[in-house]
Amino acid sequence: MKVLAAMSGGVDSAVAAARAVEAGHDVVGVHLALSRMPGTLRTGSRGCCTIEDSSDAWRACETLGIPFYVWDFSSRFKEDVVDDFIAEYAAGRTPNPCMRCNEKIKFEALLDKALALGFDAVCTGHYAELIESEDGTRQLHRAADWAKDQSYVLGVLTEEQLRHCLFPLGRTPSKDAVRAEAAERGLSVAKKPDSHDICFIPDGDTRGWLAEQIEMRSGPIVDPDGAQIGEHDGAEAYTVGQRRGLKLGRPAADGKPRFVLEIRPKENTVVAGPKELLEIDRITGIRLSWAGAPVPQASTGEPFDIDLQIRAHADPVPARAWVPLDPQSPAEEAELIVELGAPLRGVAPGQTAVMYQGTRVLGQATIDTARSRDYQAAGALD
User: Fold this and answer.
1) pLDDT tens for residues 61-87?
2) Strands 26-33 and 68-72, bridge-based pairing
3) Is 199 a catalytic residue?
4) Is residue 170 a known part of a binding site?
């Protein structure tokens, strides 16, 4: 099989490519240039797309004896990931840029180009497992090492995309085992630190970076009853669940800390209140997609049981979901309604809700609304 190995410059993608070579595939390595700042260098262990990463990817391919190329996806990355990130924050939502990058860059733009060039599959170092079901369709499952499981960020992949994916690390018991294997293979990235944070905000200061992209205006911070308790310097830079940086002028009557409950960008208002009002029991999702064949209930409107995960490393919670039938709306506009069996705290519109049944990833939706019964009872939400 002709395989295109996406080489991030890290240890995971290097070992994944090595295993693809060892399996007898015809492998070509490619590093994606996502930044138009070629002089950008790694700061500590932050980021994943620097000039150093490109060099590390090249050295790994040299060691493996496979061709290496750099593809410039910077324009597509800016449009689909960076600009989307800014627009979502400006609309009062909290996006997941890594999820959008997987959806639009690594498994849309990259895979489309790979298939057009005659490759059969794209190989990455993600920790997730692909299993072929009895009817021949592919299912996405959690990795053997739950501590490193990355199936959450792959929840945006479609059945067609899964047919052209390789995740060689899915059954690996631990990251330590991957590093040991890299060392045995003579890969120089064996001890390279993991990347973290948002790659296009290398210093990790999301608020400061957003202030340079969005025109921030000061406005009121109000409590759930609408009484002003402080002033913010830009509602777009806040996110639901945030505690630090509120600068409240009036202490709460009970003396307890207050948290961001809601962002109202049209009113340029931030709502803050007690922690218990962050507990969410109902979610509405949009941009629904299925990772493999949809569950049968998706076409009937009947409810189905799931475990719901809203962050990459969060614990899933039991829930019941359904897809309301609306003959007037096309399938791509279908909504997902989720009633949680246990409350989740600090859920923000814009986050991604990924559905599981056991280890299998069913699909995902972007959170449009997150509702708390207690908050509704206080009259703060419709």
Assistant:
1) 999 999 999 999 999 999 999 999 999
2) parallel
3) yes
4) no
